[in-house]
Amino acid sequence: MKDFLSKCLDYGVSIGGKVVLALVVLVVGCLIIKGIKKALAKADKISKLEKTVQSFVKNLVTILLYVVLIISVISILGIPMTSVITVLASCGLAIGLSLQGALSNFAGGLMILIFKPFRVGDYIDSTGAEGTVREISVFYTTIITPDNKRITVPNGDLMNSNITNFSTEELRRIDLEFKLTNDCDPKLARSVLLEAAENTEHIQNEPAPFAHMTAVDDDTYIFTVRAWCRNAEYWDVYFALLENCSNALAAHGIDDPEERIAVRIVKE
Predict the structure, then answer these.
(1) β-strand 220-230 against 140-144: which pairing, if any?
(2) Cα(66)–Cα(148) distance, rounded to whole angstroms?
(3) Cβ(26)–Cβ(73) under 8 Å?
(4) Which residues contact 107 (CB under 8 A, 6 or more apart)?
(5) Predicted pLDDT of residue 1
(6) What backbone phi and psi angles, to 5 degrees, belong to 79?
């Protein structure tokens, strides 16, 4: 009996020492991790990154540090690492199968942060959502539509779809089509449209504006006008060009088939 009690006492002292040491390591480790987080927040290289990337890097480093700390505590307590690794692997497999969509979004978020197909503030069109990027998180991207609707798009869907980014290039082209009756003079119509485009404010001289008849449909001629402008001025120039071309055609008595049909209906 005495031998048994002695062994229990020795085992308790041994275990108690390990538990105390593990607690000390846990507390000190948590304090060190907090210090590292503060140091990361003040680091020059981290502060120069985008806010989304900053948050992701800090969270990833914190998680890795806590994983190392927990493994150290488990090792101090004398728990066999093979058993721990087996349990973690089983849990990881179960979680991975149940969270396939979330993992896909996480991977998509990483790809967006690394390859940067778009940034916060860019105007994009993808997966049926079009608008200005408000926020890029690890799992989702938030888009604000022109009519101020908030769309949350999974990053996995974004990375598996075509993304049209309207904001990356300095210049953007405006394309307009005008249907004109086939009794008009094509040369006159072209010169009128080209002059209207060239006289529109903020239109770029290089590349030069374009105006040509591009199709014939029954009793109509279809003229296409193309002009380049700075990306930030796109919509202002678009509406100005549309108005100038329409006014120029009307001033020269060149109408479109729909207007002529409307007039005939009214007269009858």
Answers:
(1) unpaired
(2) 41
(3) yes
(4) 155, 156, 159
(5) 56
(6) -75, 130
What H or E segment, with its residue span, contains residue 109?
helix 100-115
Q: Which pLDDT does position 2 carry in this prediction?
A: 56
Q: What is the CATH number of domain 171-267?
A: 3.30.70.100
Cis peptide before 117 (omega within 30 of 0): no
Q: Quick one: average pLDDT of 218-244?
A: 94
Q: What span, in angstroms and rounded, lies between the C-alpha atoms of 266 and 268? A: 6
Instruction: Find the length of the chain.
Output: 268
State pLDDT tens for residues 59-93: 778 888 888 888 888 777 777 767 666 766 766 66
Tokens 């503060």 belong to which residue?
38
Instruction: Provide mean pLDDT across the span 197-203.
Output: 95
For residue 42, the tally of other CB atoms under 10 A from its CB is 8
CATH of 118-165, one of 3.20.20.30, 2.30.30.60, 2.60.40.10, 2.30.30.100: 2.30.30.60
**Cβ burial 88-106 (10 Å sphere, 16+ → b, else e):** eeeeeeeeeeeeeeeebbe
- Cis peptide preceding 257, ω within 30 of 0: no
Distance, in Å, from the CA atom of 245 to the CA atom of 10, rounded to the nearest integer, reads: 96
Query: Could you tell me the fold of the domain covering 11-98?
Result: Helix Hairpins (1.10.287)
Indicate the range of 102-106, 137-141, 206-210 predicted with least confidence: 102-106
According to CATH, where is 2.30.30.60 located in the chain? 118-165
User: What are the backbone dihedrals phi and psi of residue 213, each rounded to the nearest 5 degrees, phi first?
Assistant: -75, 125
pLDDT of residue 107 exceeding 80, the answer is yes
